[in-house]
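Long-time lurker, first post. I've been practising inverse folding by hand and with some scripts of my own, and I keep getting stuck on stretches where the structure tokens seem ambiguous. Below is the full token string for one chain I'm working on. Before anyone asks, I'm not after the true native sequence, just a reasonable design that respects the backbone. If someone could post their per-position residues I'd love to compare against what I wrote down in my notebook.
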């Protein structure tokens, strides 16, 4: 190579970083890309572009919804917001289609017994029946006999109302939400170690790192647009380590792919720490100044040499050494993780083991160095901050802390004795329903018949309730089992805020009016509260009025939103909390001054002890079943299984299995666990461990992965152990059929979503099959 081409290549390699992509710290933070709505206009006459964000995952990509002259959403355009820089994934591109979908619920559905068929009724009749059943159950069995389950895809204003409605209007301790199935292990670990529950760094810091470790996250499919940050880091020379039993799309590009056995993460990370200590790669000055508990953690790490961890994890011992050296020797290193290490009965310990590694190497609180948790749902971060979690009050306050209780009671205008104690978790509430301790339930923005583990137990629990009402805009599998279904708005028919995986609060804007007969979740909760005699505490005409109370309720807490206003969000494109005043820039990067949110300002390192998964292996069940997402679908699939392009891309679930088991692609494979069995088409690939089988979880019975998973819980976070249960595989004669999504009486299943649904073949790759590849 001549000198001139070499110089040109060097210039390409070291392109100066765009400062708007890498916001500096809190003292000079400027969030680029969030241009006010009034600066935008459409190119077509009669068309309006409404700036908003995607309704799906925790990346929260910016987009424009295209609105026609009649005020209807009819399309989408990517938005040059600094989160996504014009990129959208398949779900984001198709999200707009749900707004005016023919399956939309537009009238309340009601029946007095599950033996009856639904009939459309007026709002007056539906609300009267709902309130009469709430009163009957609570007067007969006590206030705690009625519960409420919320959702982490709701705007923060609505999640705030869920918690307040349960405790002030229902006067029940039993409230929780489907984020219990998502981020709570990371939340528990973050609170223990740092005294704050959120990612420590913005996505843009990934661009500055020298070594990126991704554990238990199929970024390419679950958070596709986040991949741009990974590629940006790689373009600047960063090494990539991926810890995952499957060779996912992102793992295929890694410098080191650790394909460990499911359920062994904490043993692996503690062993990595063992090597870091043995080779003198710890940052002792940082630990001495900023951490407690180091000697205890160090002593426990000594019990996990690579030889022991290799045997537990089913990987080469040398790979543990390689990861330790790559991460600890890097000038700047980051670790990000998601459900793959969190969906375990030791989920909190798994997350703590990653924190211990980051702290021991001094990779905390710096540009390009830190620790992050990737939120699954759109408001998975904001959804747990302001009161719908069973043990928390607004602002992340503890419901067991007397001072926190006093503060909230003063804001809500109630006596402290009126505020119920902590409730139980989502899965525990189902067990209580099964035991008839909880006899009535309202569900909002969740679909437990698909999303909760051990479907048989879930169905028994819901069937045991005397009354169940569900809010939704489609008839989900769970809503189809209810007594009352209340039709509510999509994200495009209301306004509100969400906090993405970076803890950046972003503003969603209303793009169209809801269909006639549809109400906002806010209106429904406030109207129910009025009929229950608590209307004076729920005088909220719109989301903005709720947000103003939320700001006040969070003021002075760790989760401080007080300085965030709708106007500031429109101007900036997003503000990371805590943000205590309206002239505060927000806090995109935590711990820059070396202090955490514990009173002593230090990281409280925690000793981690690995233990086997709760579902034991034996000769009858020798393999591991693990579950996860696919790029075309989202969570329970109630939205995405109705969108034709997404169904065509990934029409059905499959069983990803190693060729050593003797299956051919597309052959029926029966997966058997202690909960039951189901038959899927085989996707035969060497990209998965021979002792592991993978099934995506977006479909209902009889093709539901969660009919097979175990309902064991982490004792601290109460998250289910979705990511590992014992199983065996067998040859079968025929593949179980995928059911059509439920629809309201008088409707037929939308034909465009049924074309591919009965296709017996699996996708040609884990990321699905496009239309051009169909026969």
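-- Answer (accepted) --
I ran through it position by position. Result:
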């Amino acid at each position: 190579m001549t000198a001139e081409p070499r110089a040109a290549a060097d210039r390409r390699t070291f392109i100066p970083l765009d400062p708007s992509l890498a916001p500096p710290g809190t003292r000079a933070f400027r969030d680029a890309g969030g241009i006010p709505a009034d600066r935008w206009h459409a190119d077509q006459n009669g068309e309006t572009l409404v700036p908003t964000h995607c309704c799906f995952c925790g990346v929260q990509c910016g987009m424009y919804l295209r609105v026609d002259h009649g005020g209807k959403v009819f399309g989408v355009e990517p938005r040059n917001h600094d989160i996504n820089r014009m990129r959208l994934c398949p779900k984001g591109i198709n999200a707009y289609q749900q707004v005016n979908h023919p399956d939309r619920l537009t009238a309340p559905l009601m029946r007095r017994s599950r033996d009856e068929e639904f009939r459309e009724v007026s709002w007056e009749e539906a609300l009267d029946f709902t309130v009469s059943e709430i009163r009957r159950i609570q007067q007969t069995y006590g206030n705690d006999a009625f519960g409420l389950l919320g959702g982490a895809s709701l705007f923060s204003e609505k999640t705030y109302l869920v918690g307040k409605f349960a405790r002030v209007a229902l006067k029940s301790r039993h409230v929780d939400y489907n984020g219990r199935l998502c981020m709570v292990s990371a939340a528990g670990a973050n609170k223990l170690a740092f005294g704050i529950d959120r990612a420590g760094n913005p996505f843009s810091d990934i661009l500055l790192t020298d070594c990126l470790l991704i554990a238990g996250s199929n970024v390419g499919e679950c958070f596709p647009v986040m991949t741009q940050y990974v590629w940006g880091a790689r373009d600047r020379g960063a090494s990539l380590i991926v810890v995952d039993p499957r060779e996912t799309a992102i793992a295929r590009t890694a410098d080191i792919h650790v394909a460990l056995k499911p359920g062994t993460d904490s043993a692996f990370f503690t062993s990595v720490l063992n090597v870091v200590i043995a080779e003198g790669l710890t940052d002792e000055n940082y630990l001495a100044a900023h951490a407690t508990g180091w000697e205890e953690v160090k002593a426990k790490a000594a019990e996990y040499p690579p030889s022991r961890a290799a045997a537990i994890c089913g990987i080469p011992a040398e790979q543990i050494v390689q990861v330790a050296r790559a991460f600890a020797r890097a000038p700047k290193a980051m670790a990000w993780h998601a459900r793959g290490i969190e969906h375990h009965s030791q989920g909190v310990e798994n997350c703590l083991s990653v924190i211990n590694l980051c702290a021991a190497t001094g990779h905390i609180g710096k540009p390009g160095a830190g620790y992050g948790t990737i939120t699954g749902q759109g408001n998975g971060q904001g959804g747990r901050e302001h009161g719908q979690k069973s043990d928390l009050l607004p602002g992340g306050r503890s419901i067991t802390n007397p001072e926190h209780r006093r503060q909230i009671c003063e804001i809500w205008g109630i006596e402290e004795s009126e505020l119920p104690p902590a409730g139980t978790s989502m899965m525990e509430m189902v067990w209580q329903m099964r035991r008839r301790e909880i006899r009535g339930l309202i569900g909002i923005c969740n679909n437990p018949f698909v999303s909760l583990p051990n479907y048989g137990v879930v169905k028994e629990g819901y069937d045991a309730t005397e009354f169940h009402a569900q809010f939704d805009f489609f008839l989900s599998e769970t809503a189809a089992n209810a007594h009352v279904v209340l039709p509510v708005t999509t994200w495009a028919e209301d306004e509100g805020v969400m906090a993405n995986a970076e803890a950046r609060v972003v503003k969603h804007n209303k793009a169209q009016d809801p269909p006639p007969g549809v109400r906002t979740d806010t209106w429904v909760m406030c109207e129910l509260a009025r009929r229950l005699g608590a209307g004076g505490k729920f005088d909220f005409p719109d989301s903005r009025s709720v947000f103003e109370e939320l700001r006040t309720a969070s003021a002075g807490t760790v989760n401080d939103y007080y300085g965030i206003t709708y106007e500031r969000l429109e101007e900036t494109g997003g503000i990371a909390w805590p943000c205590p005043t309206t002239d505060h820039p927000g806090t995109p990067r935590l711990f820059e001054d070396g202090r955490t949110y514990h009173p002593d300002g230090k990281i409280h390192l925690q000793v981690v002890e690995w233990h086997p998964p709760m579902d034991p292996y034996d000769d009858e069940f020798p393999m591991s079943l693990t579950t996860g997402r696919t790029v075309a679908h989202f969570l329970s699939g109630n939205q995405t299984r109705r969108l034709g392009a997404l169904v065509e891309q990934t029409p059905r679930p499959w069983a990803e299995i190693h060729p050593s088991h003797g299956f051919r692609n597309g052959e029926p494979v029966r997966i058997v666990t202690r909960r039951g069995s189901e038959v899927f088409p085989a996707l035969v690939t060497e990209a998965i461990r021979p002792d592991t089988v993978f099934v995506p979880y977006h479909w209902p019975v009889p093709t539901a992965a969660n009919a097979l998973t175990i309902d064991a819980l982490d004792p601290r976070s109460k998250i289910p152990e979705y990511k590992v249960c014992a199983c065996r595989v067998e040859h079968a004669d025929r593949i179980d059929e995928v059911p059509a999504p439920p629809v309201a009486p008088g409707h037929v299943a939308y034909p465009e979503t049924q074309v591919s649904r009965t296709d017996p073949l699996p996708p040609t790759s884990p990321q699905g099959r496009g239309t051009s590849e169909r026969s």
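A couple of notes from the structure itself: The mean pLDDT is 92. The first strand starts at residue 48 and ends at 53. Happy to go over any region you disagree with.
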